Amino acid sequence: MEKTKQTSIKCDFCGKEIEVNNFRQKRSEHHFCNLNCYVNWRKKKISVPCSYCGKNIEIFPLRKRSNNLYCSRNCYYKAKRKKIPSTCEYCGKNIEITPSKKKANNHHFCSRKCHGKWQRKRIAVYCDFCGKEMMVLHPRRKERKHLFCSVPCYVKWQRKNIPTGVNSDRWNRIEIRCDFCNKKIKIVPYRYKSSKNHFCSTKCHSEWQKQNSLGDKNPRWNSEKKICKSCGKDFFVMRSKSKKRFFCCEICFFDWLRKNPRTGKKNPRWNSIETNCDFCGEKIYVTSYRFKTFKNHFCNKSCFDKWSRINKPRGRSSPVWKGGSVPFYGTCWASQKRKILERAKYASEISGNNGGLLDVHHIIPMRNFI
After folding, report:
1. In angstroms, how far is CA 355 from the centroid of its own chain?
2. 228-245 tens-digit pLDDT
3. What angle do CA 162, 168, 173 make, to 5 degrees?
4. Which bin fits 142, alpha (ψ -120 to 50), beta or left (φ > 0)?
5. For the whole model, what pTM was predicted?
């Protein structure tokens, strides 16, 4: 490795000679022999004249980087408000503008009217191709180098003066041959690097794909060959689904099901236990869940109803008996019911909601005193 060239310069604070790389010398204005010299140099103040009034002021060295320095806020605001003489571009009137406006815009005006008139002002100009005279807005003449009367003139001028194709400075094409028909084609370097195969047209591309990238020839091919259980035809299945799929289509699957029904014990999901009906004694199959949860099992509902009439208590002997129903409440029940609803203002005494189907009940059940 070659050593970088070094030059000897003096420390900006103590004046001691030091050796600095050429790169470091160009990069920074100030150089120091150590950190102490740099800290002391920053603390030491320098006298600089005010940019507006010329009065000497003392500042730290790092503050000297700014272009304009002022002794007070008054000088700063006065310098900001200071105006420069200029002329209106439309009427020629003498005007005063701020330095910031002078830098920002090339055109200056005394008023908005002058600015609007200057923008609407038209100048007689000749077409750069056919030489026809035309009127163009004043700002447009300064913005554009070449002006044309119509789009055809612009296109014809471009063909004459601006080189295209191989003659152009921006021409950047690579000459190769089509991978299908062997025809010469020119493509951009980006396309040449990004894809392996190149074609002159979409037809060549599609025909090349038919020959080279269909079925087993495709690099993304991920299928296995299998034989259908129903029709015996060959079909292809993805490797992830090869263990589960055995038929080429749904029609074959249903045909195979008709020939080989999967009902009862033949079904792979069969999960039933053989028992006897508790009433008629006939053999029945019950799921393991029902066999564990229920003590009694029946072949149908009629057997269950017959068994319940014999073994389950009914009427007054039932533990749930509450005295039976009372179908007739008397002749005056309708009027009594209406009076009770009017007294309650047609609102439920439990929830407090108005309207709806409200039922009137006895506080003491009627069966107790009939």
Report:
1. 53
2. 999 999 999 988 888 889
3. 150
4. alpha
5. 0.31
